[in-house]
Each structure stands twice: as structure tokens, then as C-alpha cells.
Amino acid sequence: MIDTISLLLVIIGAVNWLLVGIFQFDLVAWLFGGQGALLSRIIYSLVGVAGLWCISLLFRDRGHAKM
User: Fold this and answer.
1) Biggest alpha carbon distance in the chain?
2) pLDDT tens-digit series, residues 3-32
């Protein structure tokens, strides 16, 4: 469950950075009252923590079947 939520947050963050990079438009800031708004900062923090959590996905045993 935490993995799925983390991946969704990371995807949201990636889409937001794509919009910033291409259009100079920060969707999170626009939706939640600017970059300095408390809610925006919470979203940015959650996306950051989710990104750190997703690092652990790289090192987990996925149980691949051996042939």
C-alpha cells in the first residue's frame, strides 16, 4: 500500500516538474496557493519523502522465477 501511494506521489511530482520544465507552470503551486503556501509545501514534502521511499524499491527482491 505504501509503495503504491509513494509511486503515485512520485508520478505527480514528475508531471509537475515536466510542466515546470516545458511551460514554466507549477501545477501544485497553482492549485494550492503558491509555492510558499503551507499546503503546497506539504505536497512538495510528501512527494520528496515518497521519492526517498521509492529508492528502496530498487533494492528489493522481486521474487523473479529462476529458469
Assistant:
1) 54
2) 999 999 999 999 999 999 999 999 999 999
For residue 46 the three cell numbers come to: 510528501
Cα distance between the two ends of the chain: 30
The DSSP code for 60 is S
| Per-residue cell: 1 | 500500500
Where in the chain are the domains? 2-58
Instruction: Tell me the C-alpha distance between 2 and 60, whole Å.
Output: 14
Q: Which of 6, 17, 14 is nearest to 52 (CA)?
A: 6
pTM of the model: 0.83
